[in-house]
């Protein structure tokens, strides 16, 4: 799900540096930035609400720097565009840090007062010269220097990143490098200066906050912590021995466990892993091997076709509850419509399942107000939130909000970071190449991501006639040089193959993609047949963004 597959490396990377895996500044505060460094994100097409704030910052004179292997609409208006080789973000960011220290652009006062580990970071990045990084990233050495100078010298600079940074086997290291860069320049704890991980959809941040990750309880209390296990066992009136003593399986690992019989039953709630999981042919085999597969969703999806039982869920307008946006803003979403037929809100379905499994005392909610009331009791940052208060605050409140009289915290880290001593950490990010690189059999590099016309697994957007009519099928972006060498014309049918499978697509020949690199959107079945289930060792997020492939004419 999105808490794991999109931004698990944000939690591990920002947690290791700043102490918490969340945006430091509100989206609206980006209007106060004088420099915007956007890495691995395309908000012009994929995050239009956020993009309004970026346009206002540009209107006020902010410098825009975009790092992406595709020349996206976000890059069209950039002052500086860096056409990076996928999987090499750490090399670029380490080289920028090297320039900043070498040219004495670092904020030494901020570093001395508010961080730990700067000397080690400087020593570890000293060998990452722009020339060395240029050979790895494909970006010119002088352009790397220019970007480093622009960012470091800005009075207020913000870094925005999305899955182009996180969805790698080194995703945690990429996020650490982003934080190191900001900390070295003192670009945190002030208006317009911060780090904003751009989440993939509404309430992904909330899912993380609530412990929808196998190593955490709600509020980021670690499952491995005996005191945390005891606290939640007492709250839920359960025997602490029923809790696992360590992190459970991730979604990718659960699918593998299903395939080899270690898991016999599974619930997929609002998730379509046949489309979204890496190496999806293996996912299909795992789900098909289950003794019992329960799917809870608003539509019958490709995953639902494998279910033993489908439970109809209410969609967003048919249920009430709290949601947490990507900038930590918690809002109340009222119900606008009655759910049709037998559709029910997710909280109700989960509660009824819990009762039938023998946990009636733990699932005695009468409505979403009571769910938020429990959240406020167990998550310290939500302690000051209630349904009544959020209903009265149309604009919402930002966590941490530790008590009922607290106004919320839109801007983090003004005085201290979320670490034991209040100092941020500066671990050096370690560059490692992607797990799979092009070779003679698979000479092209496949990267995946969002398109402009579809949304996530396409379960909703492919049912929307206006969007489906404009993009009815999977399309492959390929550079004219590669297309000519392969005898592929624009609009022709092609076959894209990797070591894991193949898929048919229609070619879009375009100079917006680099030679040697091809792009597939992930909204259609087949794209993730090609990707690999190699995981980041810390975040256990799959490497969606780099796979070796070959393309041939015809399908």
Short précis:
With 555 residues, this protein is of the alpha/beta class. The chain contains 23 helices and 19 strands.
Task: Walk me through the topology.
Layout: H1 2-5, H2 8-17, E1 35-39, H3 43-46, H4 48-59, E2 63-67, H5 73-76, E3 80-82, H6 89-102, H7 108-114, E4 115-116, H8 118-125, H9 130-137, H10 141-153, E5 157-161, H11 163-166, H12 171-184, E6 194-197, H13 204-209, H14 226-235, H15 251-259, E7 265-269, H16 273-276, H17 280-288, E8 292-297, E9 309-312, E10 321-324, E11 329-333, H18 346-356, H19 368-378, H20 387-392, E12 397-398, E13 424-425, E14 444-449, H21 465-470, E15 475-478, H22 480-486, E16 493-497, E17 502-509, E18 517-521, H23 527-530, E19 547-553
Parallel strand pairs: 1-2, 1-5, 2-3, 4-13, 5-6, 7-8, 8-9, 14-18, 15-17
Antiparallel strand pairs: 10-11, 11-12, 14-19, 15-18, 16-17, 16-19
Helix pairs in contact: 2-12, 6-9, 6-10, 6-12, 9-10, 15-17
Explain what the structure shows.
The chain has 555 residues and is of the alpha/beta class. The protein contains 23 helices and 19 strands. It has a six-stranded mixed β-barrel with strand order 14-18-15-17-16-19. A five-stranded parallel sheet has the order 3-2-1-5-6. Strands 7-8-9 form a three-stranded parallel sheet, with no helix packed on it. Strand 10 and strand 11 form a beta hairpin.
CATH architecture of the largest domain: 3-Layer(aba) Sandwich
Q: What about the largest sheet?
A: 6 strands, mixed, barrel
Uncertain residue segments: none
Count of discrete structural domains = 3
Per DSSP, what share of the residues sits in E-state strands of 2 or more residues?
Answer: 15-25%
What is the typical, i.e. mean, pLDDT?
Answer: 94
Helix-residue proportion:
25-40%
């Amino acid at each position: 799900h999105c808490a794991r597959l999109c931004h698990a490396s944000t939690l591990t990377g920002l947690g290791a540096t700043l102490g918490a895996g969340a945006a430091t500044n509100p989206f609206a505060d980006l209007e106060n930035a004088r420099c915007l460094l956007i890495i691995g994100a395309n908000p012009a097409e994929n995050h239009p609400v956020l993009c309004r704030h970026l346009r206002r910052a540009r209107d006020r004179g902010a410098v825009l720097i975009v790092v992406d292997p595709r020349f996206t609409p976000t890059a069209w208006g950039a002052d500086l565009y860096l056409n990076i080789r996928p999987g090499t973000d750490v090399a670029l960011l380490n080289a920028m840090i090297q320039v900043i220290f070498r040219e004495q652009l670092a904020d030494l006062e901020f570093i001395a007062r508010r961080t730990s580990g700067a000397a080690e970071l400087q020593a570890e990045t000293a060998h990452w010269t722009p020339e060395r990084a240029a050979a790895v990233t494909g970006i010119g050495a002088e352009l790397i220097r220019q970007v480093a100078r622009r960012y470091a010298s800005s009075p207020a600079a913000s870094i925005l990143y999305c899955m182009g940074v996180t969805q790698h086997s080194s995703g945690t290291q990429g996020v650490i490098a982003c934080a190191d860069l900001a900390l070295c320049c003192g670009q945190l704890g002030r208006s317009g200066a911060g780090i904003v991980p751009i989440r993939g959809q509404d309430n992904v941040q909330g899912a993380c906050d609530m412990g929808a990750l196998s190593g955490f309880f709600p509020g980021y209390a670690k499952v491995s912590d005996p005191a945390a296990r005891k606290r939640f066992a007492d709250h839920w009136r359960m025997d602490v021995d029923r809790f696992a003593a360590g992190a459970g399986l991730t979604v990718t690992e659960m699918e593998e466990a299903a395939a080899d019989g270690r898991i016999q039953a599974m619930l997929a709630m609002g998730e379509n892993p046949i489309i979204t999981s890496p190496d999806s042919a293996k996912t299909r085999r795992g789900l098909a091997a289950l003794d019992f597969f329960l799917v809870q969703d608003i539509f019958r999806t490709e995953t639902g076709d494998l279910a033993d039982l489908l439970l109809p869920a209410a969609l967003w307008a048919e249920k009430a509850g709290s949601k947490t946006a990507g900038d930590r803003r918690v809002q109340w979403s009222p119900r606008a419509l009655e759910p049709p037929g037998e559709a029910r809100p997710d909280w109700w379905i989960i509660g009824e399942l819990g009762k039938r499994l023998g946990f009636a005392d733990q699932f005695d909610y009468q409505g979403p107000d009571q769910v938020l009331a429990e959240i406020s009791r167990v998550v310290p940052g939500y302690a000051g939130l209630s349904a009544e208060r959020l209903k009265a605050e149309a604009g919402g409140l930002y966590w941490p909000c530790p008590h009922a009289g607290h106004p919320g915290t839109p801007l983090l880290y003004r005085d201290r970071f979320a670490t034991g001593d209040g100092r941020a950490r500066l671990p050096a990010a370690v560059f490692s190449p992607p797990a799979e690189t092009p070779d003679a059999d698979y000479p092209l590099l496949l990267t995946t991501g969002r398109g402009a016309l579809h949304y996530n697994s396409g379960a909703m957007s492919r049912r929307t006639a206006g969007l489906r009519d404009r993009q009815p099928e999977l399309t492959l972006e390929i550079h004219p040089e590669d297309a000519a060498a392969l005898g592929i014309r624009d609009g022709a049918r092609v076959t894209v193959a990797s070591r894991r499978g193949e898929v048919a697509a229609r070619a879009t020949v375009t100079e917006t993609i680099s030679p040697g690199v091809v792009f597939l959107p992930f909204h259609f079945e087949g794209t993730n047949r090609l990707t690999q289930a190699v995981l980041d060792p810390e975040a256990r997020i799959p490497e969606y963004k780099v796979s070796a492939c070959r393309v041939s004419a015809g399908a």
